[in-house]
Amino acid sequence: MRAGISIVVAAGVLCATTPAGAQGLLDKLSRALNKLPGAQGQLPLGGTSRSNAVLDPITPAQRAKIDAALDHAPPSLRAEVAQARSTIAGYVAASSCVKDISSGMSPLQAYLGPDALSLNQIVAPLGGMRHHDAGSCLDVLRFQGWNRIALNEFGFQAVYIAADSGEAQTRQHIVHRQPDGAWLMRQ
Description:
Elements: H1 2-14, H2 19-35, H3 60-70, H4 78-97, E1 139-150, E2 153-161, E3 168-177, E4 183-185
Antiparallel strand pairs: 1-2, 2-3, 3-4
Helix pairs in contact: 1-2, 3-4
């Protein structure tokens, strides 16, 4: 009961603090919740249980598959893909693991440019899978359908597959070079 009282007090103080102070209180609140009986531990970028996590951790093998798939970009786009590689890899890795894109804390937000689709218009590949264990990330089977849209923009499709169920989803992605030279996702 004492832990419950502390949590209520921390949540009450949270309402009356600055954003920087609020983050510290959220961290303390998360640690306190994880100490309660039955807590499953905090997941990266997510909640405190697997059922409501925003992002599960991607495995090194899954990250290696994304990197290998990027090596097969067509010669006409290799220079652009090389420049945008970290953005593409990060965005696709997050997309393969994210459960709730509409969350304001979506890890996809870091890769989206100012002209990108809003988060509520992006459909996570996991959302269309009914037989996959949603507690694990999807594999990226390949990238396909590469096309140059403009000198500062190109698109491709990512094929996501669930290793446990064999279900697959294809998503169209567009990468746009910003005026400062950074490559960010449009969708």
